[in-house]
Design brief:
alpha/beta
């Protein structure tokens, strides 16, 4: 596998681009993204963490105090700023790729990779953390199922589709690296 930091290896087409991971909460964007960045020798950014830094509030607090619409406006601005940085690995929030303008900027400046996980995998993973504002409801699993259905048409527009399954994160990282070898700029 060519290393985009090794000058003696052929330069892969994605070398000059950020790798943006998209998908639902629980797909593994942050966890896998950190490991992918390490493997590629790149910086890693998590858009939710960057939003929290910029706002001085947690995502849950932003939703509670200002609502989802305000959160999405801030998210769009933070993502635009992050996409102007040198190539890195970027974990995006689950709803980021739904916005047409954000999706267009991401596809222009990054290789977008949909970390695609089935509902049961997502449900198992999201239950491990209590900081998912969209799931703070009695019918959380049904709502997650609805999000899968609603967002799939948007996520399917990503440049690459990689399955995120249970097991070592290295498997998903390797699947992304393999998929990146097939990517060509349009």
């Amino acid at each position: 596998m060519p290393d985009d930091n090794d000058p003696s290896s052929p330069t892969p087409p994605f070398a000059g681009r950020t790798i943006a991971l998209v998908g639902l909460m629980g797909a593994g964007k942050s966890t896998v993204g950190r490991r992918l960045a390490e493997k590629l020798g790149r910086e890693f950014y998590d858009s939710d963490t960057e939003i929290e830094k910029a706002a001085g509030l947690s995502i849950s607090d932003i939703f509670a105090l200002h609502g989802e619409a305000d959160f999405r406006r801030g998210e769009k601005q933070v993502l635009k700023r992050l996409l102007d940085l040198p190539p890195h690995v970027l974990a995006t929030g689950g709803g980021a790729f739904i916005d047409a303008e954000t999706r267009e900027v991401m596809k222009e400046k990054a290789v977008t990779v949909w970390l695609n996980a089935d509902l049961e995998t997502l449900w198992r993973r999201v239950q491990k953390r209590d900081n998912r504002p969209l799931l703070k409801r009695a019918d959380a699993k049904a709502h997650l199922s609805n999000l899968v259905t609603e967002r799939e048409p948007f996520y399917s527009q990503a440049d690459l589709n990689v399955q995120s399954k249970d097991g070592p994160h290295t498997n998903t990282v390797n699947a992304i690296l393999k998929a990146l070898q097939t990517w060509t700029p349009t």
